Amino acid sequence: MRMFIAIPLSEQVTAELSALSMQLRSRDNSMRWSAPESWHITLQFLGNISQDQYTCVVSRLSELHSPNISITLRSFGFFERAGIFYIDVQNTKPLLALQQSVAAATALCGLTVENRPYHPHITLARSKGKQGIKALNQLKVRLPRSPRFTSFVAESFLLYESFTGPPGPRYEVRERFTFNNIESP
Fold first, then answer.
1. What pTM does this model have?
2. How many whole angstroms separate alpha carbon 39 and alpha carbon 14?
3. Quick check: 87 and 74 in contact, CB under 8 A?
4. Complete edge-to-edge strand list for the sheet that includes strand 121-127
5. 23-32 core/surface letters (b: 16 or more CB in 10 A; e: else)
6. If you write DSSP's letter for every residue of 84-145 in order, what string do you get?
7. Partner residues linked to 101 by β-bridges
8. CATH topology classification for 2-178
9. pLDDT tens for the 185 residues of the chain, in order
10. First CA to last CA distance, the chain
11. How far is CA 49 from CA 1, 6, 52, in A?
12. Of 160, 184, 167, residue with least CA distance to 66
C-alpha cells in the first residue's frame, strides 16, 4: 500500500483554487493540472508500507492530540527542478507541531522521516515533457499579482492510499483522525 498523511482542504478553498486553476489552464502549456479532489496539505509521505505498518500507523496516529489548526494560504510557488506549481501554506507553530508529531508517531512503526525542512503546500500542477521549464515560465507571467485565499480551520487529518495511473494519481481516504478540541498552549 502506498500511503501518505495529509490535511484536507475546506470546500471554500477548494472552490477558490478550482476557479484559479481554470483561469490559468492553457492547452499548450505542457502542464498536468491536479484534480481538485486530490488537493491536500501533506504532513508526511509514507511510501509503500506493509499491513503491519499500516496497523501500527493507524494506532499511533489515533493517539495524537492537537487543537484545531488555522490554515492560511499565502502565495504562488514553484519547485523548478521538479516542475511543480503550488500554493504556499503558512507554516505556523501548530502546523509544524502536528507534522512533527505525525513524523514521531510513524517513526515508531519503522518508517523513515525526510531530512529536509517541512514546507507545507498544495500542488496545483506539474510540468510535463521537454517543454516543462517553458511552461512554468509562461505560467508565471499569467499569475495574479496579489492572490487572496480564504483561511480555514483544519479539524482533522487523513491517511490516504495513493494509486498511480496514466491520467495521474488517485487518492482514497483510509482513515480520518479528528483533532481534540483542546486549547493551544
1. 0.90
2. 8
3. yes
4. 31-33, 121-127, 84-89, 73-79
5. ebeeeebbbe
6. EEEEEE---HHHHHHHHHHHHHHHTTTPPPPSSPP--EEEEEEE-STTHHHHHHHHHHHS-S
7. none
8. Cyclic Phosphodiesterase; Chain: A, (3.90.1140)
9. 999 999 999 999 999 999 999 888 876 667 888 999 999 999 999 999 999 999 999 999 999 988 999 999 999 999 988 889 999 999 999 999 999 999 999 999 999 888 889 999 999 998 876 677 788 888 888 888 878 899 999 999 999 999 987 767 789 999 999 987 444 43
10. 36
11. 5, 16, 8
12. 184
Which cell is 137 given? 515560465
Write down the residue that cell numbers 512554468 correspond to: 136
